[in-house]
Amino acid sequence: MATIREISEKAGVSIATVSKVLNGKSGVNANTRKQILAVAKSLNYRPNLNARNLKKGHSRTVGIITEDLTVFNSPEIVDGIAQKLEESDYHYILGNLRFYKRYGNGPRDRKESIELVHSAVEDMLSKQVTGIIYVGCHSHVVVSLSDYTEPKFVCAYCISEDESVPSVIYNEEKAAYDLTLRLLDYGNEKIGMISGPMDSSHTANRSRGHMKALFDRGIPYNPLLTLVGDWERDSGFLLCRELIDQGVTAIFAQNDLMAAGVLDYCSLHGITVGQDVQLVGFDNRDISSATRPRLSTVALPLFEIGQKSAEEMLSILDGNPSGQHLIQLDCELIERETTMNRINKS
């Protein structure tokens, strides 16, 4: 890559003059400026932003580390972060740990994964980032960042063990509470639930919201109406029969893939979802609007989580941290044909 010295030699002007032009400063006549820019372009000159920012005493670059960029939530969160940083004239460097590809849905923060996180953090620090936004692929507690005191962290879609680190997540307990109330408002007092694995924080939060809504309406929670799935479509299909046999009039599947499995079972057995039984999923995955009937679900504020995470980081870098540890954003209940058909028919 060309240097400022090479540009000055070819343009026949001083290094100081080239530096003024390339840094957008005044004091150089129009013809000389035009000549220098033409020479810089012909030599494929690219400014070293890190060196320029460090010379000014700070880097305007933020690191983004994703646990897995292929998981459905990550792209929207990263896009939200990127937009907010770009609006504030910050650059970003993106790193991908590929956790899901490496470990599947297994537990995080084991020795190997912690070493992987530490390696990614060290790599970001070597590139002179001023802060790091860590994007989880599940809402788990991250312990691997607690070993650092130097860099500034913000967690997105996960929670830092260190309470001094802002953690931006969504309020899934409230979302489950609200959707259960909606099913109750439609006259469903016998609601079945297909949960995720019992060791998942998502399962715990969504189950808690569901049970609280039943309690607030004076309806006893029946544990026989909660069946444990594995987040996959087949488990929704296999568990649906047991709930239908128990006479439920509505089913809350804790993610859209299991809800799609419920639709598969009902379609195969002549059960009209939305009329014979109502159904709500969770996550607003692409499949929710592609099914027939279209699936009612809960939309996660992924882009907003990204934006809020970047806002928290920028506030920290400006010396005005919010001081909040856990920041929860609201979800949106999206009603489609799997809850609306019965209402429309009546």
Task: Give structural notes.
- With 346 residues, the protein is α/β, with parallel strands linked by helices.
- The protein folds into 3 domains: 4-47, lambda repressor-like DNA-binding domains (434 Repressor (Amino-terminal Domain)); 59-165, Rossmann fold; 172-300 and 334-345, Rossmann fold (3-Layer(aba) Sandwich).
- The protein has 14 helices and 14 strands.
- The strands form 4 sheets. Strands 2-1-3-5-7-13 form a 6-stranded parallel β-sheet, sandwiched between helices.
- α5 (74-87) packs across α13 (302-317) and α8 (172-185) runs parallel beside α9.
- The longest helix is centred in the middle third of the chain and has 16 residues, at 111-126.
- The radius of gyration is 26 Å and the shape is elongated.
Set down the secondary structure blueprint:
Layout: H1 4-11, H2 15-22, H3 30-42, H4 49-55, E1 61-66, H5 74-87, E2 91-96, H6 99-103, H7 111-126, E3 131-135, E4 141-142, E5 153-156, E6 159-160, E7 167-170, H8 172-185, E8 191-195, H9 201-216, E9 226-228, H10 233-245, E10 250-253, H11 256-268, E11 278-280, H12 287-290, E12 297-299, H13 302-317, E13 326-329, E14 332-334, H14 337-345
Parallel strand pairs: 1-2, 1-3, 3-5, 4-6, 5-7, 7-13, 8-9, 8-10, 10-11
Antiparallel strand pairs: 12-14
Relevant terms:
346 residues; alpha/beta; 434 Repressor (Amino-terminal Domain); Rossmann fold; 3 domains; 6-stranded parallel β-sheet; 4-stranded parallel β-sheet; 14 helices; 16% strand; elongated
End-to-end separation: 71 Å
Question: Sheet bearing the most strands, described?
Answer: 6 strands, parallel
Give the percentage of residues in beta strands: 15-25%
From N to C, what is the helix and strand string? HHHHEHEHHEEEEEHEHEHEHEHEHEEH
Overall pLDDT level: 90
- Spatial strand order of the main sheet: 2-1-3-5-7-13
Number of helices: 14
CATH superfamily of the largest domain: Response regulator
| Count of the separate structural domains | 3
CATH topology of the largest domain: Rossmann fold
Helix content: 40-55%
